[in-house]
Design brief:
mainly alpha, 17 helices, 2 strands, 72% helix, globular
Length: 306
């Protein structure tokens, strides 16, 4: 990624953790999503590229919201060891340099927003970064206090954390468009679908196991959607809470936890929720005037979660 702010050779050495994660990043879901938004907003290739750089820079530097590709702060906060099969940045560069690199990119992205040519771009960026950190904060608080949230609390957290990057791209792009249609409900539902799907895949996908390790969310003590449903299905049974509290790497214990999650119907429940969101997203796309790029994205996400 090219930064608008003038950087020295030494500056780039400070950004090594960030450059490392960019080299090992995923398939650019958010960049494709912004191009899909432009099908509706029609602002042109240059603005799409500029906005994509801001969103991708923030995503790589701060995700929180696991979403799914970030190697630095989110991985430090989640005690992750692998990301897409590679060592996470802080295990190579150390925690201090990794955090500093991520914060460096935060402010470089603010500078990028200042240069977009919109008087509200920077305030939009700051607003969404605040929401993103609020969501990540709840996620961390529940994990560190071993408190299982309700499904409603989880939904609110995901709306702040995962939905933030989706909203940021749309809102920045829309400042340059004559189309002022309210897409907020669609964005919220897409964020929920994306995160619930990620939680589901973490537990059941063989490919995901080989990239991150078996049931990594259990090892991180994370209250993912299926786990929340399983715990709340029988509040008198504390086994999952105790297993999450241990943050265990033991394969047998994690297998037992997964068996229990399946036994109480949480995997099937999650699968049904995903199907409902898929149908809702397709319906919303149609109501909003149709968008073949978004339809293809939802189809690909659906097929890869089976």
């Amino acid at each position: 990624m090219q930064f608008s702010y003038p950087l020295t050779e030494n500056d780039y050495s400070l950004l090594e953790p960030y450059r490392y994660i960019c080299e090992s990043s995923g398939k650019g879901f958010r960049n494709i999503l912004i191009k899909a938004f432009d099908y509706w907003l029609n602002v042109g290739e240059n603005k799409v590229k500029e906005v994509s750089e801001v969103v991708q820079g923030l995503h790589m530097a701060s995700l929180l919201i696991n979403i799914d590709d970030f190697y630095s702060i989110d991985d430090i906060e989640d005690n992750s060891k692998l990301r897409r099969g590679n060592p996470v940045a802080h295990t190579i560069y150390g925690v201090p340099q990794t955090i500093n690199s991520a914060n460096f990119v935060y402010f470089l992205m603010i500078d990028q927003c200042n240069r977009l040519g919109s008087p509200v771009a920077t305030s939009i960026f700051i607003e969404e970064v605040i929401r993103l950190h609020r969501g990540q904060g709840y996620d961390i608080m529940w994990r560190d206090n071993n408190r299982c949230p309700t499904e409603e609390e989880y939904m609110r957290m995901v709306s702040e954390k995962t939905g933030g990057l989706f909203r940021l791209g749309l809102r920045l792009l829309q400042t340059f468009s004559e189309n002022k249609t309210d897409y907020s409900q669609f964005i919220e539902d897409l964020g929920l679908y994306y995160q619930i799907r990620d939680d589901y895949i973490n537990l059941i996908s063989v490919d995901y196991h080989s990239n991150k390790s078996f049931c990594e969310d259990i090892s991180e003590g994370k209250f993912s959607f299926p786990i929340i449903h399983a715990i709340n299905s029988n509040l008198n049974d504390k086994r999952l809470l105790m297993i999450l509290k241990q943050k265990t790497e033991d394969h047998q214990i994690k297998t037992h936890a997964l068996d229990y999650i399946q036994k109480v119907g949480s995997i099937e429940y999650t699968r049904n929720i995903l199907k409902k969101y898929e149908e809702k997203l397709y319906s919303q796309i149609k109501q909003l005037g149709g968008n073949p790029i978004l339809e293809e994205m939802v189809t690909k996400l659906s097929n890869s979660s089976i």
